[in-house]
Design a protein that fits this description.
Distance between the termini: 58 Å
Radius of gyration: 23 Å
Low-confidence stretches: 166-181
Number of helices: 2
Mean pLDDT: 83
Strand content: over 45%
Structural class: mainly beta
Length: 293
Amino acid sequence: PLYYLESKQLVWTQDAIHLTDNQSKPRPTEIHGQGMEMELLTNNAKPVGPPANKPKSDSIAGVKRIKLLSNVDMHLYVDNGSSFLGATQTKGEAANSREKAHIGIKTLGTFEYLLQKEGDIALFDACIQPGTPVRDVLVTRHHVGKSQIDQLTCEKLEIKMRRKDSTGPEAGLEKEEKSLQSGIDIQSARATGKEVVLTSDEEKLEAHGNDFYYEAKTSTAILKGTPEMWALKEGNLLHALEMSIQDHKADPKTPGAKGFQKAVAKGPGWIDIKEKDKKDQKPVRASWKDQLI
């Protein structure tokens, strides 16, 4: 059953929930969970003129927030060119950037979605309590046209989103193409926890810390650790206070242009480097106090 409390403009249920956002094209955003709280947004402007004999309830103008109470499973689709849990694109991949990348987010804990003018906020919380079994928030990005995934594991995740508007005066094929580009952009994301883990099949990367931040505007991802973070890439082991990776995409207008990544590790830190063709050889260690680029 679904319940409604007018005094709080609250709709709730303890049953299984399936929410679908069909504004995302070509595939909708979908969320499954158990139990829900939905706070409604009202238009409580005072009417002009003498008061009516019978008071009227506020008119409902939309939804203010939605919270799923447990067993959350979310599926959303972002531009393939998004650098959130994604590697630098090749020129061919940039040409196919109209395809959407599938991102799945799962947790046994809660999910809360706040609808705001400056951008929506999605909050995932594994709700870890003393004595409870191991549980986390798991984010998986499936790369278009590849059997490879990138994953992020944490205890709490906050994502700031911007809804792409598909409305406009276009008609016919132009309008259809713009509609297919509508959906959700991830502006930023922050993951925290006792241990935050990043893995990438494509980059052959495994990284551990406790604070991860991503910003779409600068295509930068930063992983911090207390007392340090560490990363393993193609047999090379790095320890540092924090590591940032900035994605520089290939310019589609420049022939032969290639994308690249700039990595900066703040020290003090050290790295063990192994030669690919010499597996039995002892790694070479380098250390630094300030930063490694």
